[in-house]
Amino acid sequence: MTHILWTDVAPRDGLQNIAATIPTEAKFNLVRGLLDARVPRVEATAFVSPKWVPQLADSADLLAALGDEPRGRIRVLIPNLRGLELALQNGVRNVLVTIGATDSFNRRNVNRSVDESLAELPRIVDAAQRGDCAVDVALSVSFGCPFEGRVAVDRVVELCARIAETGVAEVGVADTIGVATPRAVTEMCAAVSGVVPLQRVSLHVHDTRGLGVANVAAAYEAGVNRFDGSVGGVGGCPFAPRSTGNVCSEDALQALVSLGASIDADIAALCRVSEELEAVLGQPLPGKLYRAGVWTGEAAPETREVRVG
């Protein structure tokens, strides 16, 4: 039985593209709810410029409110060395760096070429290790770029190899715009496994075109056990047009369990977190399970007695 390391990215990737400012208290409740639901790792926030992502301007305040106890289960996104410095100052022990698979996307995201980002990565890893902090890297737009179109598998493999050589803890393959298919995911996993052990590979998919859960299942069957998702399926990338919807955590975890995987998270508790987040945002979320309910095999109370005529 394969055990899953699930990272819920709703507090960061899920909320970053929402225009209305969400109170820090609501973000705290979301992170705390995910931790209480036994999600192994929560991507709580990011140290990025408030000019570009104003929703995450309260990152230091949020981490202070969370306190020290959950730090081992929290990850924070950083764009560069300066972001790492801020993360370390706030006691962060796990950071995520995103690097685009194409220059066009990487420049739009962090105003650098891919090679420039890769050149800085060893310095980030070295500084993080001295600060007792693990570094993960996600390779954005691995399956397709909104500005350059299809991305060759060989390009992704080459970049994953270069990233892995820096000593990062995890190498993520990200379908940022939701164009991957199960066959493409299977082929990508096989190709990437030639340069990075699949135990160090994670998959981050979006459900933009309805294949998010199927893509998670395909990666699991190919040997991947690390995944990102967002409770309720909330989120999208502000730098990728029409990139709506991370794969829904509880929907995907339900599928993984059905395939024989073991998980830490309490799926029913995640559904309750989605219900609470729906109330905060004031609109239904893309996820399905939290609205339908966890299936127990029993008839719903209101349907147990059926009268005809």
Structure report:
Helix 10 (249-258) runs antiparallel to helix 11. The strands form two sheets. The protein has an eight-stranded parallel barrel with strand order 1-2-3-4-5-8-9-10, surrounded by eight helices. It has a two-stranded antiparallel sheet with strand order 6-7. It is an alpha/beta fold and 309 residues long. A hairpin with a 3-residue loop joins strand 6 (144-145) and strand 7. It is globular and about 60 Å long. The model has no long low-confidence stretch (mean pLDDT 94). It has one domain: Alpha-Beta Barrel (TIM Barrel). It has helices spanning 10-14, 24-36, 59-66, 81-89, 103-110, 114-130, 153-164, 182-192, 212-222, 249-258, 267-281, 289-292; strands at residues 5-8, 41-46, 74-78, 94-100, 134-140, 144-145, 149-150, 170-175, 201-205, 226-229.
Using brief descriptors, characterize the structure shown.
two-stranded antiparallel sheet, 309 residues, TIM Barrel, alpha/beta, 12 helices, single chain, 8-stranded parallel barrel
What count of helical segments does DSSP give?
Answer: 12
How many domains, as an integer?
A: 1
CATH architectural label: Alpha-Beta Barrel
Low-confidence stretches: none
Gap between N and C termini, in Å? 50 Å
Strand order, sheet with most strands: 1-2-3-4-5-8-9-10
| Proportion of residues in helical segments | 25-40%
The succession of helices and strands, N to C, reads EHHEHEHEHHEEEHEHEHEHHH
Strand composition percent: 15-25%
Radius of gyration: 19 Å
CATH class: Alpha Beta
Query: Which fold name corresponds to the CATH topology?
Result: TIM Barrel
Mean pLDDT: 94
